[in-house]
Amino acid sequence: MNFDNLFRRFILTQSFVRGWGNPLHLQEIFMYRRDKIGVRDECLKLVPAESVQDNTIEIVKQEIKADRTYIHGRFRSPLADYLPHLIPPEVATAHFQLILPRDHRLGIDPIPIGLCYAGTGDHGFSRRRLVTAIPLINQYRIASILLENPYYGLRKPPQQSRSSLFYVTDLYIMGKALILETLVLLHWCQKMKLTPAILHGFSLGGHMASLAFTNWPGPLSLLSCASWSTSSTVYCDGVLSRTIPWALLKQQFYENKAYQTFYEYLRERKRSTDANVTITDPIKDMMRLLMDEFTSLFNYSRPVQSNISNALFIACINDGYIIRDGIPHMNDLWPGCHIRYIPRGHISAFLLNQSRFHDAVAEMLQRQQPDVRLKKYPIITPASIASPGNS
User: Fewer CB atoms inside 10 Å of the end CB: C or N, the chain?
Assistant: First the structure.
């Protein structure tokens, strides 16, 4: 955890540099999460299988390097059709890279696939390609789709600096867009015989994978590394809380009655479960309530029961970013999911445990489909390892 704190001091990126975002947009995204994207049957209506046709995915470039084929694709994000006034033009187009063995015949031969989400600050495809996709294809013959985050890389608005999202609302738009884009890609994977499939990622990427996992009705696996049930403690208590301009958020909160009104609405919704809690900082409480509303897995459909046994969370015992105290345990939210703990901090886990994550991807695919053809078959390991603390 000390290393996490030290590492963060060398990162200049700030969060939400322009504040909360339009309060009307905040309310609109909230309603869309509550009524549509957070309810599996309603969310599936937004991206039905028949909406993904041969021309939905545009193949921009295909190249062969060594013994691998790299396919660059793009498609219009469904969220840009449903909430066009909230989506910057750059975000409206989803970009991805598909990495296959050179001898694979796309659309003819089946092959297991991993949809890998980007962590905080992971722009483009090079890091995930080097750290995740190439090892998976070399060791297990698992193909990969690397999806670009909204507001990152090719999808970054021109005035945005690095990963410094302008508004709190940008993070929520990112999540909703990725959930719908995942549905597009999973429908396409079925058409292209890219099965069985797993969603996976580290930190922010792991949480986005978890959110997207909730809405798929068919067989699917999940590996969520260094993430947990909600992002509220990440931004209010963890290392990232130091990157937030709290003074600006406070100023906007008290200058605009709309924020205060929405805060009272959120607080009233929460009052039944924490009636005895004393609020000393309304600004941080507003952030916590918002993060729970938009990122807590409690506020999304529970995954279909047959998929929960294909879901694995790998948590870091000494994580300075992902604080697990005081928030729902994943065993309570998704009874039957697998949880493992590693004696690492957030950054050290990413640097030193990649091979463990690769093995876990293969393992969870094998749990979903025991006869899946892998280059190297993993050994199914125990489902859970008890944490000595902070679980």
Answer: C
Mean pLDDT of 167-184: 98
Q: How many CA atoms lie less than 13 Å away from 158 in the CB half-sphere?
A: 1
Decide if 376 is inside a domain. no
The total domain count for the chain is 1
Structure confidence by residue, pLDDT tens digits, 218-231: 999 999 999 999 99
Distance CA 376, CA 372 (A): 11
The 10s digit of each residue's pLDDT in 60-86 is 999 999 899 999 999 999 999 999 999
- Cα angle 185, 30, 292 (rounded to 5 degrees) comes to 90
The domain containing residue 109 runs over which residues? 2-368
70 Cβ contact list (under 8 Å, min separation 6): 61, 62, 63, 64, 97, 98, 99
Q: What is the pLDDT of residue 275?
A: 63
In b/e form, how buried is each residue of 97-134, taking b as 16+ CB within 10 angstroms?
Answer: bbbbbeebebeeeebbbbbbbbbbebbebeebbebbbe
Selection from 236, 352, 350, 247 nearest residue 291 by Cα: 236
Q: Is residue 386 part of a domain?
A: no
Average pLDDT over every residue of 326-353: 95
Sign, CA dihedral 278-251-246-32, equals: positive
Task: Classify residue 379: in a domain, yes or no.
Answer: no
pTM above 0.90, yes or no: yes
Q: Higher model confidence: residue 141 or residue 54?
A: 141
Across 151-162, average pLDDT: 94
Cα–Cα distance measured from residue 142 to residue 226, given in angstroms and rounded to the nearest whole number: 22
Taking the C-alpha atoms of residue 335 and residue 349, their distance in angstroms, rounded to an integer, is 25
Give the alpha-carbon dihedral of 268, 272, 274, 277, to 10 degrees: 60
Q: What DSSP line would sit under 26-79, residue for residue?
A: HHHHHHHIIIIITSHHHHHHHS-GGG--TTTSEEEEEEEETTEEEEEEEEE-HH
* CATH at 79: 3.40.50.1820
Rounded Cα–Cα distance for residues 228 and 241 (Å): 16
